[in-house]
Queue: 2 jobs
Job 1
Amino acid sequence: MSFVNKKNFSQILYILSFFLLSVFVFLEHIDWLRGLKNASLYLALFLALLYAFLNFKISLNNIFENYKTAKVGLMFASAFIACVFVVSSFAYDENYPSLFRAFRHFGRAIAFLLVILLLFNGDKRVILWLFYSFLCAFVIGGGDDFYSLISSFENLSANNYLQAVLVSRSYADFVDRFLPFGLCALLLLKSTRLRVFVAIVGVILPLFLDLFTGSRGSWLACAFSLIIFLSLTQNTQIKAFIKAHLKLFIVCLLCFFMAFGALVWHSTVLKFKLTQGFDSSGRTLIIKERFNAILATNGLIFGLGYGKEQYDSALINADKLGLKTAKKYGTIDNGRQNYWNDEPFFLGYLYYYGVFGALCIFGLFVCVLMLSFKGFYHTKNPLLLAVFLSVLAYFGVRGLFECYNLRVLYLFYLLGFLIMILRAKDEKCANC
């Protein structure tokens, strides 16, 4: 193979790898397309390894430079994954294949980070590929929920609470993660029409749909995102954007509050949730009783292992010992008690992976927050703001109310995305 041919072939491998990585990011968040996600990710990894084989010195330099940008975060990520595998090898309930499932789950995080470490060379184009993959997943992924809303709107005032929930609670997790990407796209996009389009489908509509989920934790996370976004961008393009479209902005704001008022008056879900106020919905009792129960099973220090089955098994055994487990906050599935895992995110990971695992994932969370905020403070790069707000809203705010439904892999994806932004030769990607 001549030098020219090798160079061209390597370039093709590079482009295809990041294209497939972007496809994976999109598919990972679209429920009805997830069957293809692993194929795109592991094909991207295969091409990246082939690229590294052909360009060993270049890949070695990429690994070194990419590692330097977020070495503490990568150390925490590596230590956490190692902890997961070790703890899952000695899982609390050996009847469930925790190690196999842990490898299958966290293998995606390893593959994602490997592709970036091996290939990324500061190319700003592929950064935007990933950003718009997140954004497209957010916009398109809400299609089913929007259809669910309009097709069952007659149930808005239904006496049955569950029937009155017009949008799945899983959509709330979606909004928490990706609303910051919709907000920051307003700063990145140059076209006025695109900005208005994204403002409607990537900000206003998701907030509107989120109301129907009945998730107060999500409402709080979104409020945090909006307040911090407006606070940190008051001296940037957002001011000019609002000024240029002031009439449209005022009309949209009035329509939103009028719609909200009408919904509060008629919606069973909203009326119930507002009357709840700051009531914890049993979470205080869950924390109090289950912490003591899991502590008694000797699973707290070293962890129970991967999988909610381990959590349920520990609490079932604690219940047999006569310990309180807040049993009513759960369901009976196929004759087996299923406990709702509604502890705060980091407390839940203390249960699953022990003290060391919880400290590692918390350390990774703090590292991503600090690096993204520090980077945004110095560069005013909207991409860094998107990462900061997404991590804070999803794991920091929403993570106060839930554990198992939150996707921990998302933290690893954002770590890889953050490495790319920080490594970029020109960090002001707003103009790229």
Job 2
Amino acid sequence: MIVKILIAVLIFGITVIIHELGHFLLAKANGITVTEFSIGFGPTVVKTEKGGTVYSLKLLPFGGACQMLGEDGEEEGEGTFNSKSVWARISVVAAGPVFNMILAFFCAIFVISYAGSSPARVTEVADGSPEAEAGLEAGDIITSYEGRHISIGKELNSVMTVQGVPTDEITLEVKKADGEKKTITYEPTVTTRYMMGFNYDDCDRGMEFTYVQQNMPLAAAGVVAGDLLVSINGAPITCVADFTAYQTEHPFDGSAVTLEYEHSGKTKEIMVTPVENTYANVQFSYQLREKQSPIGVLKYSVLEIKYWVRTVIDSVGMLITGQYSVNDLSGPVGVVDAIGTAYDDVKSQGVLVTVMTMLNMVILLSSNLGVMNLLPLPALDGGRLVFLIIEAIRRKPIRRDLEGMVHFAGLVLLMALMVYVMIHDVQRIL
């Protein structure tokens, strides 16, 4: 337990340190006085001073800060943030997210050098399937799925998982082995099942709901990720094998089902009616990873970062449109728990696999941190960039006190959201 917590904190800390290091280095390069460079937040554990900068380690290992002279005030004397040109300030603010992308890129190089990466190269197509009859063949590279450009196999997997597979008609663009580009359209084979909207897995305490889909029966009944299934219609469920066996004998058919589940140490009973769900069968397989040349490693490292950037942006869009809720967000506690869970899942497979898995977590987290910080919201780097870009266009700054008030209000709201998410993470974990 202690080991996985330390690893998780280390990974989280590295991504934050690199982010703040970006701000720090560009501030120094532009002659801005950095008053304090801190790791963590809360009370100071240890500190030292060098070259006019206080370097400190805080008690709580989540976050960090690069505090610059005059950054949040109207000071414009020598060495202050506001005394520098608008483009110098833009470079300093943007450096944090940029350094996160650089970190993710170098981690991707290591992972892809070891495990490889691949375009969505088709490896097998079921004989007699609609896909085969439409002309899809082993060796084809899928470059577009339903109008969305596909760069790597992981991206195709994500699109089909998150957006779902159309049940009426599917359009693919593929690159044939001889280089020919072809558009393939087909009507997939469909299957109808009754579902309640959840994913699950075994854990030390039993069968855990690892994901509960919004706007589905289970979520509507109040079940959340992290809850444990106790019984179905009186049949005890102690693990996934019990659930699978029950499903084999009693598949959901649209009739109401009585569930017992454990939430925050309390057992609750609900009645849920599964809903009919018609879905398309995917009758082809494709490569996620294949070894790459040195040039290929660099190419697919870029594509890997592009994939995660796009994934984060899509997730933000789904949050705005209501496809995700605030309860689906994870804060530092949730991130540490996710990293710890990933470590537990792979530690038995050897040091090398474990290291590569942890590097993948760094890629995910660092890309996420970089993109999220560029959102045009007050108190974030993106919010600061909005004010600086406006200043560059109108050639004069917005009133410093007004900008400060906006950022302060944003910070208060952001901290309130963080507290809410942290509490939710703790409740889910416990």
